[in-house]
Amino acid sequence: MNRFAISTFILAFGLLLNSCGPKGASSESRQACVPYQIRVEVNDNSMTVIWKADCDQLTSGYNIYVTEYSLWNKYKNKQLPKSVRPHNTVFFPGDIDRADKIEHYQADGLENGKKYFVSVRIVYPDRTLSRPSKEITAYCYPNGIIELPIRNKARTDGFSFGLNKSVEATDLENDIYFFSKEGKNYLNSPNKMNGFLRKNKFIKLPFEGDFADIIGNLKNSRFIPKNERVEVIKGDWVEILTEDSNFILLKVLDITGTGDNKKIKLFYAANRVPNSLNF
After folding, report:
1. Same domain (yes/no): 61, 175
2. Residue 76 belongs to a domain with what CATH number?
3. pLDDT tens, 169-220?
4. Separation CA 151–CA 197 (nearest Å)
C-alpha cells in the first residue's frame, strides 16, 4: 500500500470514529434547555420551588437560587460568578418521578416577610450552567386552613396566628373566635369576651377572587380594619389588624351545621412583619 493510500485510509477511519462516537451537547442545544413555568408555594419560613424541565441533554441536576437581590438583569445571559451561591448545597438531582417533568425543591431557613428572588438553572456534567428560568419574587408567610366551632363548644375554639395553632378562645395568645346570633355569623376579637384579651380589628373586603386577586387589589386600595367583629358569609374575604400590628387575610370557605354544632372553615395567610402587606 503506497503512502497516499495509507493516508487516505487513516483519514477515512478517523472520520468514521468521529461520526459514531459520543458527542457533547452543542452550545445551541444547551441554550434550548431552560427550566420553565417556575412558581412557588410559600409557607412559614419556607417555600417549595416548582418548575418544568424537559431537556434531552445529559445533565447533573439543578441549582436553585433564592436570593435577596435580583440575578436576572446582570446574569440572565451569563455564567454566574462563584460568589453567587445556590440555595442547595449539592446539585439537586430532581424528583424521583420524572414522568410529568415537574420538579419540586423545598427551600427552608427563609425569613417571613422578606422579598426573595427565585430562579433555577440546569447543571451540566462539566459544571457549567444553563441560562436561568424566569426570575420570580416571593414572600414567606404562615398560611393554611382552620376550622372554628361556635365559641365555648370545644376546647380549641380559637386560633393564634402568632403561635400558628388552635387555642382556647380565652387564651391570652388567641386572635379570633366564631359566634352566631339570630341567624347571622360573626368573626370576633377576643377583647369582645374579656377586656384583658387581645384587641384585634376586622374589616370585610369588597373584593372577590383568589388570593392573588386580593393581594393585587390591596396594593391599589388600602383598607384599615377598625371593628372588633365582622359579619360574614361564605366567600367573604376579611382583613385583620392584630394587636401587634400584623395583617392577616382570611377567606370564609364554608359555614356548616346549625345551632351549637355550627362551624366555620377559613383559609388564612398571616404576615408576621408589623405594618406590612407583603404576601
Report:
1. no
2. 2.60.40.10
3. 999 999 999 999 999 999 999 999 998 999 999 999 999 999 989 998 988 8
4. 15
Both 115 and 203 in one domain: the answer is no
Q: What is the gyration radius of the CA atoms in the chain, in angstroms?
A: 28
Asked if residue 1 belongs to a domain, the reply is no
User: What pTM was computed for the model?
Assistant: 0.80
The partner residues of 265 in beta bridges, in order of sequence, read 147, 254
pLDDT tens digits for range 104-131: 999 999 999 999 999 999 999 998 999 9
pLDDT digits over 24-44, tens only? 444 545 566 899 999 999 999
Smallest Cα–Cα separation from 204: which of 177, 235, 161, 162? 235
Write out the residue range of the structural domain in which residue 38 sits: 27-138
C-beta contacts of 45-48 below 8 A and 24+ residues apart: 45/108, 45/109, 45/110, 45/111, 45/112, 45/140, 46/106, 46/107, 46/108, 46/109, 46/110, 46/140, 47/106, 47/107, 47/110, 47/116, 47/118, 47/138, 47/140, 48/104, 48/105, 48/106, 48/107
